[in-house]
Design a protein that fits this description.
Layout: H1 3-27, H2 31-60, H3 67-72, H4 79-84, H5 90-111, H6 116-136, H7 160-175, H8 177-189, H9 194-224, H10 235-260, H11 264-286, H12 304-325, H13 341-363, H14 365-370, H15 380-400, H16 411-434, H17 440-465, H18 473-493, E1 496-503, E2 508-510, E3 513-521, E4 530-536, E5 542-545, E6 548-552, E7 557-561, E8 563-566, E9 570-580, E10 586-587, E11 589-594, E12 598-601, E13 604-612, H19 615-620, E14 624-634, E15 641-650, E16 658-659, E17 662-663, E18 670-677, E19 682-688, E20 694-695, E21 701-710, H20 713-743
Antiparallel strand pairs: 1-21, 2-3, 3-4, 4-5, 6-7, 8-9, 9-21, 10-20, 11-19, 12-13, 13-14, 14-15, 15-16, 17-18, 18-19
Length: about 775
Amino acid sequence: MFWPGTIALWTALFAGLASFGCYLAADRGGRGWMTAARRTYLVFTAAVLSTCGIMLTLILQHRFDVAYVASYSSRDLPLKYLVSSFWGGQEGSFLLWIFWGAIIGLVVSRSAKEMEAPVMAIYIATFVSLVVIVCRQSPFRLLARIPEDGSSLNPLLQDNWMVIHPPVMFSGFASLSVPFSFAVAALWKKRWDGWITRALPWALFSFVTLGTAILMGGYWAYKTLGWGGYWGWDPVENTSLVPWLMTVALVHGMFLQRSRQKHRKVNLSLAILAYICILYGTFLTRSGVLADFSVHSFVDLGITGWLVADLVGFLVLGVALLAWRWKKIPTVVDEAPGLSRSVFFIIGIAALVGLSLVILLGTSSPLLTKLGSKPSQVSTDFYRKTTSPGGILLLLLFGAVPFVSWKGETARGLLRSCRRSLIVAAAVLAIALAFGARSAESLIFIGLSAWAFDMNLRAVVRKARNGKLGGAGGYLAHAGVAVMMAGIVVSGLYDVSKRVKLPRNVPVNVRGYSLKFTSVVPPTENSKQAMEVEVDSPTGKRFYAYPKMYINPRTNQLMANPSIRKSTLFDFYISPQEYDPGAPARVGRQATLRAGQIVNVGGTVVRFDRFDIDRNAMASGSGTLHIAAQFTVTPPGGKPQPQTAQFTAHMDDSAPNFGLAAAIAGTKGSITVDNVSPKDGAVQVNIAGLSNDSTPAVPESLSVDVTTKPLISLVWGGFYVMMTGATLALVKRSRDARKSLVSEAAPAGPAPVSEPSAPPPPLSAAPVLSRERL
């Protein structure tokens, strides 16, 4: 073990346990314990930061005696990829998760006020459980034999988006512990409403960070993998999507409770479920369960039992508290009319939870099918068929909500509010039909997306005119979702792809484009080997595409990155598939022979007998090998006669290998050895002059997939709009939370436990059961 890192890691564990215990004691009334709890949490945070700092320093110093450093870094990595190798493996990604948890906890401890003790006790427990796993599978293990260089970072991860994607994603994972901790503390202390104000900004933060990370991963796949897509329903992709969808449901539920003091049970359940989904996804991706079904899955490092214990422990804690307090949680009979915002919110939450569970079921199929038969996974068509109805329902709700009040709306009034947006949707549908859209499902999505976008855009404009743009975040986010939905449907269903072979300097027409493979661009210090393709568009405009195709020298893995020409209406996507360097024309018969095998050329029989080779020189692995290949040649009607052909091989690649032509006695023919394989006992020969056999020249060529992706810019543009709206909502709710803290006088000791003895009077149209806040 590398002891400084190990000591820091174990210090974090013991300090976290100490802080957990002190917070529990403080909750039971010990005034002095609160100070001890805060100080030990600072020690925990300092130890976590030290652990991460030590690991990063080891990586930057190329300490290949440390197993983790040797496995995920190398001397030739640029600084940005060297830093990102910190989270390139399981242990490092756990450390990144814990790092964000420690930082976020500093803010939570200051904002929880009188509920600090129970909230922080639960919060610390969620991260101490991760520290235990890292202590079990330490990243500071030392190697018995120190390599000269490391194995380097996975070539696919050497991308700018992968540098920032994991930190963003794990900040979202860490922040989901906050709503969970507040919800469990609320159940523990029987405080049903105040926790919403404190936890809502963190739920919004998780929504923003996880959503950003998901789309970063999608864009990375689109521009790096060359398969033309950004989402493949990969199990590991889904394990981040499901918690995000649960978080979206939680955000809407928390907003509903904050506004109407209803559906407390729903929000407590959602806060617990969202965090449990994070733990379940971690188990799926890190236990090896999905190793045969996802290229992103980690191998099992022997921590599966710990992951299961973590998942089961917090699941039992949350479910047990819910069951214990279920009957005591105040409820309100919702008498809102059908066309009201409350009802629409609940239907939307149910739809989001339903989508999450369906996706989770499909993602879990390898685990479920393993119980009864051979493990298998569902097809991507399963997800399309099961999620489409939910998507349609959400678009309907997103569009209607801005013009439906809490008190309710009449069908005629709602239709009147929708009139302009329906006209916009009809116009968009007409355009879609004119451009060839025919699928009923896609037309429904396109029409609803246009309608929902216009409805929410009008709500944003209305808020802006009233000077309340900060309160338009939700509407702006819904407008972004509508744009994204349209982009996903159109780019997915109406893309056109064709595979073509491009001989060098020969134009090939592809759907009105003229493509010509002109050259191979050699690698430089800052770029990989690329293929230059000259493209003449239907408008006569010429541009050059540079799809990359090269062999990674460390892994011997073929790497292929597409070239993407972006425009407002579509992307022109060229993905390299195969490069053929070609071959010159050859006269003669080519054959591969092993000892004792023969080939008949124009009546002359050639049999390969053996190699004469210097085995000591071959064992040295360097220098020059002179190989004599022995043959027996039998001319037509003649006697067998021995024949030797020489071949020279340079073991250190200092010069090209070559064979000398050996004349066949009594004929005009010759034998040339083109290559030898001592390991297989085989020889490649060219026999010329005995027949008219010849091999025509093979031209150099590049095979590519050429794809047009219509309106894919709507996917990325809609995401930016959605995140802008979510950020506006996050800022507003954070301000509300700060105002709430200022307006409340925090008691000196732990908050008393109390329950409402009788329902308080209604406030406006919404019954309120308790005025107490956290």
